[in-house]
Structure formats: C-alpha cells, structure tokens
Records
---
Amino acid sequence: MRYLRSFRSKRSTLILPAAGSAVISCVVIGALIMVFGFFISKIDATDIIISAMSTFALCIGAFSGGYVSGKRRRKNGLLMGILCGAFVFMIVVLLSHFFSKAVESFSMPAKLVLTLICAGIGGVVGVNSKHGRF
C-alpha cells in the first residue's frame, strides 16, 4: 500500500506540471497567432507565409511550455518537455477539429514531431537554466 501511494505521487508530479505548462504554451501560441494575424491584415501574405507563421508560433509556444515545465520540475527536462509537447499537440488537434475541421491535414505528423522536438529542447534548457525564484 505504501508503494502504491508513492507511485501515485510520482505520477501526478509528472503530469500536473506538464499539463499546466501546456496551458501556458497554448496562451503563448494564441498570443503569437494574434500578433501574426495583425501583421497579415496589414500586408498581403501568401498561404506559404501564413503556414510558416503558424508553424513558428507552434514551435515557440511548445518551446516556452517545455521551458516552464522543465523549470518547475527541475529534473528530467527532456521527459517533461516531451510530455508537455504531447499535451500541447492534443490541445491543438482538438481545437483545430472543433473550429476548422482541419485534422485530416497531411502535415499533422510533421507538426507532432516538430512540437515534441521544440518542447523537449525547451525542457532541457529549462532544467539547465539558472534556478532563481519561479
């Protein structure tokens, strides 16, 4: 029984910081999409530029989520970043399914890999950064 309680606490300490960081990551992605939307409304942008801007926002958001997740946990940065990236990707897929019905895109596996890589790098950087007050 004692082992089971300790296992639950370890599992919840992995999932909760990653899920909270995924929410922060989605806020960053939304803010970047709004800024890029403002710039797109001022200039005439092609579909390639719009796709590049949305991919860039996804990468920066995943990196920031992985960074916060690694900084909060202070160990296992790669694991925390990848876990946060998986949460971010699930949130993005669910939101795109409900709002734009664009889940059947061919670029979803590529975006999954890109999200996991950026979040993993963010987690490693977050763990290895200077530990101040967070």
---
Amino acid sequence: MKIAIGNDHAGTEYKFAILEYLESENITIFNHGTDSNDSVDYADFVHPVASSVNDNTVDLGILICGSANGVSMTANKYANVRAGLCWNKEIVALVKQHNNANILCIPARYTAIPQAIEMVKTFLNTKFEGGRHQNRIDKIPISC
C-alpha cells in the first residue's frame, strides 16, 4: 500500500506519530508535509497529496491541519478525490463505508495523537460498502 501524507504547521507532531505507525505496518509513505512548526500555507502541502490520489499514484492520502477544513476543501477540488474531515474513528468508518473516501483529513486542534492513530487504523482497515452508496458517489463530480 502507498500513502501520501501532508500537513501544515498545526499537524507536524501528528504527522510524525502517524508516520511511525505507518512505517511499523510496512506501508510506503510519500511525505509532502512540513517538518516544522513554523507557519506555512496548508494548500502548498495539500496539492501534492491530492494530485497523487487523483492520479492513482498512491492508494490513499492523509492530510492534517488545525481544523482540517482548509485541507479538505482544497483536496476536494480534484475530480477523483473524496476527502473526508473526521474527528473520531466512528466518522472515519462511515466516510469509508458510505463515501469511499480516499483522503482522511484530521483536525489536529480537535483530536489527540492517540485518537488520530486510531482514526488512521480505521481508515486503512474499513472497506467501502458499494451498492446504494456507489450511486451517490457517481453523482458527486460535476462538469462545467
């Protein structure tokens, strides 16, 4: 499995903890996030993650910022991205089961690191249910 991860300054500590977990699972990681706590613009770190998910260069993505709103809004501009903003593992399970999310967006200011790790585990181990949910997903993209 290949995962792209990105973060801004609010998510640096979370990213390092998540990287440690992913490495322990022998997952190939593409780190597009900042390694610093210095203020940066989240979009600069979202685009490489969302682009690689959009183009199927990686299987899944993880994005982390303070509220996760900015990263999810930016990632969802890509046609083949379904980025879900989640704050607990129950929401993560639903966003995978019902929405076939391919990017997990974690709000660092509203979750604890152990909680974020559990969310990542749930994201990686939950399957899309398909069926009636596929119909709904097919209606997400728009053509202008």
---
Amino acid sequence: MTLVVDIVSWILLASGAAFLIIAGIGILRLPDVFTRMHAAGIGDTLGASLIAGGLMVQSGFTLVTVKLMFVLLFLFFTSPTATHALAKAALSGRVKPLLAREGKQSKS
C-alpha cells in the first residue's frame, strides 16, 4: 500500500513541478504583460495545487493534511484575485494588449 501512495504522491509532485517550470518559461518567453500574467496565474495555481495534493497524499489523514487544505483554499482565492488586480492595474495604466497595440484583428 505504501508503494502506491509513494507512486501517486511522486506523480503529483513531479507534475506540479513541471507545471511550475513551464509557467516560469512562459513568463520569460511570452510577448506582453497580459499573456505573462496568464502563464503566471494558471501555472502558479495548478502547479502549487498539484504539489500540495502530492504532499497531502504523502502525509495521510493528519493535521498536516488539514493545514495543506487551508493553504490550497487560500491559494485558490488569492492567486486569481491578484492576477485580476494586476491586469486591471495594467489596463488603468494604459497598457494595451499586444494585438491592440499593433492594430491587428483576429480573423475568425
């Protein structure tokens, strides 16, 4: 049974780390502030959630699991709220998205 718990927790931990690394690369490579915020917000929430899930599986049903659930709840509320606030601040500071700056319109 402990082998299954170890395998599941390591899969969650590794996938969370992969999402965080991909989000970091996205922050460096994406062209404007809005797409960078998208990479940071999604990657941070998903990556940290997977890592916390792996830690919860590893710790079992203990007080540590309850604390990790509270951390996840806090993260689910604060990360999207902070990303939204930054996007609104950028729009208030007259930062335009990349397509709006170049005058391009999407062809649908």
---
Amino acid sequence: MGLFDFVASAGDKIFGDDEKKEDVVTVSQERINEIRSEKITQMIKNSGIQVANLKVTADGDLVTLEGNTDSQQDNEKATLTAGNQFGISRVDNRIEVASSEPEASFYTVKSGDTLSKIAKEHLGSANKYMEIFEANQPLLSDPNKIYPGQTLRIPRA
C-alpha cells in the first residue's frame, strides 16, 4: 500500500494518560520501539482485523506493517490502527492483499468536523455519515467521538 502520514500528537497514548511526574522513568528508544510494536500488534489482533503472519516494527515515529490479508478493508484498518497512535507519524504498509479491491481514501479530522460534515464533503450527503462510521469499525466506538488529527477511512461513494 505504501507510506502514510499521520499526526503524531493525536491518537491513543500507548503508555496511558495517568502518568505522574514522579512515576516517569527513563526508557531507551529501543524499549519504546518494542513496546509500541507489541501494543500495535495486540490492538490489530484484538480488533478482529485479519492479517496473517503480522509483523509490526516500530522505529521512532515510523511503524512498518508486514503480513498477508484477503481484504483491502483489513489492510487499510491495520494502517489506521497503527497510525492513530500518539507518537506515530508514518506507517509503511507492506501488507500483501490477496484480492484487488479499490482503495478507500483517508481523511484527517480537523477541528469542528463531524462525520456528517465529512460525509457531505466526500460522499455527497450528510446522511451517509454511518457509512464512514461503519468503514472505521471497530476503530470508532461512537459516531460522535472523533478528534482533530485522527485519520479515518472514507469508503468509495
């Protein structure tokens, strides 16, 4: 699929939000890369995204994905799962897809966006917001909970 850019300061924090200053310890970049790789692998598997022989390698703000999948949708969702993590700004997707389906487009949420607004702009009707919500399952838990910097799949109209 290629190399994708994301907003590194947006997304889920792999290390959590509740750290206190006195709880912070120095961790090597190698260990951070290992933890990111493990967590992203776990998130992809736990979300039901089907990628055989999945290998996730983090190197600073870059994550490389390798493996095989039957669907373009699972391929794109793996990319979004990896990229929508705090501190990740690029995903190099090397996952091989068995079927040749058209690729969806990606959209980075801006302040003031709603799924309805995005649907009107990209799909021609605000009423098609549920198509975007469903295209991003299980990455989105609620159609009203999107945030600036988050990247979403926009299905073909």
